[in-house]
């Protein structure tokens, strides 16, 4: 699983990104938001949207989500 960020800055893409909030947040703002950046995806804390997001390759994000949707509760 690769978590190597892209080589070039994605500042413009992040500025114009369409952020989606998890449906599990229930409006309480304690969830994550995700933005599609093509080959990469950005993930940020919905309570702190001004902080820098974590950038994942799409395959790394898929691996992470698969890990949790398979019922696993911890990484290690």
Automatic annotation (TrEMBL):
InterPro entries: DUF397
Residues in DUF397 domain copies: 17-66
Pfam families listed in its UniProt record: DUF397
Protein name: DUF397 domain-containing protein
Lineage per the UniProt record: Bacteria, Bacillati, Actinomycetota, Actinomycetes, Kitasatosporales
């Amino acid at each position: 699983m690769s978590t190597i960020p892209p080589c070039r800055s994605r500042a413009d893409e992040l500025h114009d990104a369409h952020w989606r909030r998890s449906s599990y947040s229930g409006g309480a703002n304690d969830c994550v938001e995700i933005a599609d950046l093509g080959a990469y995806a950005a993930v940020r804390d919905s309570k702190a949207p001004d902080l820098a997001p974590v950038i994942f390759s799409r395959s790394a994000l898929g691996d992470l989500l698969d890990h949790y949707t398979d019922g696993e509760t911890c990484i290690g």
